Amino acid sequence: MKFLLVFDFDHTIVDENSDTWIVKCAPEKKLPNGLRNSYRPGHWTEYMGRVFVYLGDNGIKEDEMKRTMTTIPFTAGMVDLLGFIGENKELFDCIIVSDSNTIFIEWILKASDFHKVFDEVFTNPAAFSSTGYLTVQNFHAHCCAECPKNLCKRKVLKEFLDKQLERGVSYTQIVYIGDGGNDLCPVMILKKDDIAMPRQGYTLEKKISQLAQDLSPVECSVLVWSSATDIMSYLKALIKK
After folding, report:
1. What is the pLDDT of residue 42?
2. Which domain holds residue 155?
3. CB-count burial class (<10 Å; 0-12, 13-18, 19+) for 241
4. Which residues pair with 173 in a beta bridge?
5. What cofactor(s) does the depicted protein rely on (predicted)?
6. Is 162 assigned to a binding site?
């Protein structure tokens, strides 16, 4: 009996958006209007690339970015939840699928010593260039019309599950924990024994309830959470079954 926990990162594990949190490093903690208005829907990663160039041009170095990122708050109850999962790793495989980037997630998880809880992190690859500028790339290419250009979480989840099956690993239940519009695509492939856990009041919850109103509900069960304590209660009940 093994369960797969799939976590989004921003507004799910941490209570903010890591990409907008980095703006605290910028002069006067804000971006120029021209840069802020340069975002085009579906092209967030390219936009963040321009933000990182601006930070680099203003002399913001890696250590300052790291200091800022490790002050990002975890969502209520999340520290306890991740501790609980860590203590029960024989029952839970745990992955992150996020539109953030490898550097930010690694910094935050290592600073809090939660990196061991997660088996894999799927997110946009980031690195510091020889000139000390942070760079970020699209995670992959895909043909999903619903998702941003750089990342289709459904494709990531599907490929992960296929790879696990090849290794002889199948899951009693998949638990998908997220908040954003881009979390709907992977939720759509969950089966009736699986469970989607959208964060209360966020886009994913609204989209799932809209589908139910349109009489085309998702196949899996849905349990809304407002604090990670709700998720922990569910997982505790699950492993007692």
Report:
1. 82
2. 2-16+74-125+147-239
3. exposed
4. 3
5. Mg(2+)
6. no
Residues (pLDDT < 50) of the chain are none
8 labeled binding residue: yes
**Residue 179 known to bind ligand:** yes
Residue 215: the pLDDT is: 77
Annotated catalytic residues are: 8, 10
Q: Determine, yes or no, domain membership for 89.
A: yes
How many structural domains is the chain composed of? Answer: 1
HEC profile of the chain: CCEEEEECCECCCECCCHHHHHHHHCHHHCCCHHHHCCCCCCCHHHHHHHHHHHHHHCCCCHHHHHHHHCCCCECCCHHHHHHHHHHCCCCEEEEEEEEEEHHHHHHHHHHCCCHHHCCEEEEECEEECCCCCEEECCCCCCCCCCCCCCCCHHHHHHHHHHHHHHCCCCCCEEEEEECCHHHHHHHCCCCCCCEEEEECCCHHHHHHHHHHHCCCCCCCEECCECCHHHHHHHHHHHHHC
Residue 38 dihedral angles phi and psi, to the nearest 5° = -85, -5
pTM of the model: 0.96
91 found inside a domain = yes
Q: Is 134 left (phi over 0), alpha (psi -120 to 50) or beta?
A: beta
Looking at residue 1, what is its pLDDT? 84
